[in-house]
Design a protein that fits this description.
Layout: E1 2-3, E2 10-11, E3 37-45, E4 56-65, E5 70-77, E6 86-94, E7 97-103, E8 108-110, E9 116-118, H1 119-125, E10 139-147, E11 150-157, E12 160-163, E13 169-172, E14 175-185, H2 208-216, E15 220-225, H3 227-239, E16 244-246, H4 259-263, E17 273-277, H5 282-292
Antiparallel strand pairs: 1-2, 3-4, 3-14, 4-5, 5-6, 6-7, 7-10, 8-9, 10-11, 11-14, 12-13, 15-17, 16-17
C-alpha cells in the first residue's frame, strides 16, 4: 500500500498519483513535502522524571505549510491534564526533519488540592502585583518523520525567571521529554480524539544525543530544604544558569510552575522539598547551598 503524503489516502502499490489532490504517491517518507493538516499526538516526560509514565498529555496540531520550509499553526491540549486555551505553532519542516516552537497563551500551575490556577492568580495570592496574564514558557520540539504519517522526537523548556517591580523574582525549572504525532486529515475543521497513547512510537529510533537530552543524565540530589531556603537557592541558581529539578509527587505541574506551587504554600505549613541539579553544575550548586548555611 502507498499513502498520499498530503491527504493520507491509501492506494495500492501500483498507483502513482493521488486522485484527490494530484500529489505524487511516495515510495519513502522523504516524499512528504508538506505538514499541512491535522495531527494527533501526545507528549510526556522522560523515565527519570516520570518513571510510571503517568504525566502524558494528548494534543492536536493544526498546521499550514508556508514558504521556505516554514509552517505555522495552532495547538490544543486535552483536559484535564492539558493547558487550557489554543497555543501557537511556528516551525520548519525539511523532510524528514521537523522543529517547531509551541507557545501557550496563558501559564498555569496545579495546586495541591488538584485545582488549576493561572500564574497571575498564583502571584496575586502571594502578594505580588501582576496586572496581566503571563504566558507559558516557549517549548522547543525537535523530531523527524518515522514514516509518511508519523513523527516523533524530544521537547525542551529552558530555565526562566519572572521578576516583579518590587524586586522579587521567581525561577522556573527546566523541563524535557518525548513526543509523537500522527497525521489525521487535511480538513482543518476536524477535531479528532484518540490517537497515540504514549509519548513515543519507537524509542529505538532516537539518537543517543536525543535520549541523553531527556533521560541520559540523572540529576543529583542536594538534599531536602524548607520552602524558604529552597526559593533562595533557586533564585541564585537562576542567576548562575545552574540546571535544576524539583522532586514531585503525583501532582502534575505546568512548565512554568514555581516551587511554592509544588509545596502548597508558606514555608511554615509546607513539607520539605528536594532539589536536584545537573551533575556538571553540582559543585557550583553546593557552594551556594553550603555558603548559605555557614555562620
Amino acid at each position: 500500500m502507498k499513502t498520499c503524503p498530503y491527504c493520507g489516502t491509501e492506494y495500492p502499490d501500483n498507483a502513482t498519483v493521488c486522485a484527490t489532490d494530484g500529489e505524487t504517491l511516495p515510495d519513502s517518507i522523504a516524499a512528504r513535502k508538506k505538514v499541512s493538516g491535522v495531527w494527533r499526538g501526545v507528549f510526556g516526560y522522560g523515565e527519570h522524571r516520570d518513571p510510571a509514565g503517568t504525566h502524558s498529555v494528548a494534543f492536536t496540531l493544526k498546521l499550514k505549510q508556508g514558504w521556505l520550509e516554514r509552517f505555522t499553526g495552532s495547538v490544543t491540549e486535552d483536559a484535564p491534564a492539558g493547558t487550557p486555551g489554543a497555543g501557537t505553532i511556528d516551525g520548519y519542516f525539511n523532510s524528514p526533519a521537523i522543529e517547531f516552537t509551541k507557545q501557550m497563551p496563558v501559564g498555569y500551575v496545579w495546586k495541591e488540592d488538584g485545582t488549576l490556577i493561572t500564574l497571575r492568580e498564583y502571584f496575586l495570592a502571594k502578594g505580588n502585583k501582576c496586572e496581566h496574564e503571563l504566558p507559558s514558557s516557549p517549548i522547543l520540539y525537535l523530531g523527524a518523520l518515522i514514516d509518511t504519517n508519523r513523527m516523533q522526537g524530544t521537547w525542551t523548556i529552558q530555565p526562566r525567571r519572572i521578576s516583579f517591580p518590587a524586586g522579587q523574582s521567581f525561577s522556573m525549572p527546566v523541563g524535557s521529554g518525548f513526543w509523537c504525532a500522527q497525521f489525521v486529515t487535511t480538513d482543518p475543521k476536524v477535531d479528532p480524539a484518540g490517537g497515540p497513547t504514549g509519548p513515543l512510537f519507537d524509542k529505538s529510533l532516537l539518537s543517543v544525543q536525543e535520549l541523553e537530552a531527556v533521560d541520559g543524565v540523572p540529576y543529583r540530589s542536594l538534599g531536602r530544604f524548607t520552602v524558604a531556603d529552597a526559593e533562595r537557592f533557586l533564585d541564585r541558581f537562576g542567576q548562575d544558569d545552574i540546571r535544576f529539578e524539583l522532586k514531585r509527587d503525583d501532582t502534575p505541574m505546568r512548565q512554568m510552575t514555581p516551587i511554592t506551587a509544588v509545596t502548597g504554600g508558606l514555608a511554615g505549613a509546607a513539607r520539605l522539598i528536594e532539589i536536584f541539579v545537573h551533575p556538571d553544575d553540582e559543585e557550583a550548586a553546593l557552594k551556594i547551598t553550603g555558603a548559605d548555611n555557614q555562620v
